[in-house]
Amino acid sequence: MGHEAADTPDRLAEAEAARRDRRYAEAIRLYGQILEVKPRHRAALKGLADAQRGLRDYEACHATWMRYVQAYPEDRSVLTRVGDACRKTGRQAQALAHYQEALRARPEDRHALMGLGDLHHQAKRLDEAIACWERLLALDPSLVNILAMAGNAHRKRLRFEPAARHFRAILEREPRNPYALFGLADSLRGLGQHAEAAPLWDAIVDLDGGNPEVLTRAGDCFVRLGELDKAEALFHRALSLRFDKPALLGLARIHRSRNALAEARACYARILERQPADARTQRLLEELDAAGQAGEGKPPLPPQIEG
Q: Which of 162, 203, 161, 196 lies closest to 182 in space, CA to CA?
C-alpha cells in the first residue's frame, strides 16, 4: 500500500477506532502512516498524541503536542491537553502557562482547573490549589474527590470550618466514606467540638481499627470527654501496632489523672528511650517527678495530647 493510500478518510477512521478501543500501538502505527504523507494533518497529530498518552509514553506525547502547537498555534482548544503533557513530563512552568492560558480562553474549563490545582498541590502551594478546587466545586459541587482534596487542604491550613463543610458534603453522598469521616472528625477536633466528633470516631474505628493514627486521635477525643477507660483501650490498641508517641502521652495523661504516677513515668520513659532529645517529654517527666517528691497528690493533667 503506497503512502498516498495512507492519508485517506478510511485510514483515519481505522486509527480513531483503534484509539477508542484502546489498541494504542495500532493507532500510533496508523496515525504515523498518515503523518508520513501529511506531517501537518490536524486530526492525526491530535490522535497520535492521545494514543501516546494512552500508552503512558508521556515524552512522545509531549513531542507530538509540540509539533501540533507549532503547526496550529491559533488552536486554543488543546491547551489543557498540552498542559497535561508538560505536567506529566516534569515541565511544570510550561504546564502552568498552558493551563492559565486555557482558563483565560475558557474560565469554566474543568480539566484545566483540575490540572492547575494538581500542579499547585504538588508544589505545596495550598492556597492556590484551594482556589482552583473551589472554582471547580462552584461548577460542580458533587465532585467527591475535589471535595476531599479541598477539605484536606483547608484542614492543613487550620481552616477547620470550610474543611468540615466539604467533608459533610461528601458524607451526604457517601455516609461511610472513611476519608470523609476522618476529615470531618479531625476538623471538629480542631474546632474543639469533641462531643460532635465522638460518634464519627466510633464509626472510623469500626471501619479502620488497624490504623494507629485513627486509634490515637479517637482516644484523644474520648480523653477530652472524660471517657478514660475507652480512651485507654484505644491507646493500647495503637501501641500494639507500633511505637506511638501520641498514644503514650495520652496514656500518661490518663495515669496522671488517676494518680498512677509510676505508670505515667513509665510512659514518658518509653518515649525518651526512643527519642532522648525530646525536650517536651523530658519536661513533663521532670514536672511529674517534682510533683511526686512534693507529695502534692494528684498532679494536674498535661494541657494537651500531642499529635
A: 203
Measure the CA–CA gap between 48 and 42, rounded to whole angstroms.
Answer: 10
d(CA 180, CA 28): 41
Which pLDDT value is given to residue 209? 85
Which pairs count as long-range contacts for 33-37, CB under 8 Å and 24+ apart, including other chains? Answer: 33/3, 33/6, 33/7, 34/6, 34/7, 36/3, 36/6, 37/3, 37/4, 37/6, 37/7
For cell 498516498, name the residue: 4
C-alpha cell at 47: 490522535
In angstroms, rounded to a whole number, what is the distance separating the alpha carbons of residues 297 and 114? 58
- Residues, the chain, total? 307
Q: CA 130, 131, 132 angle in degrees (round to 5)?
A: 90
Ranges of the chain whose pLDDT falls below 70: 1-8, 293-307
Please give the full DSSP string across 115-139, using - where no structure is assigned: HHHHHHHHTT-HHHHHHHHHHHHHH
- Residue 45 burial (C-beta neighbours within 10 Å; 0-12, 13-18, 19+): buried
3-state SS class at 88: helix
pTM as predicted: 0.80
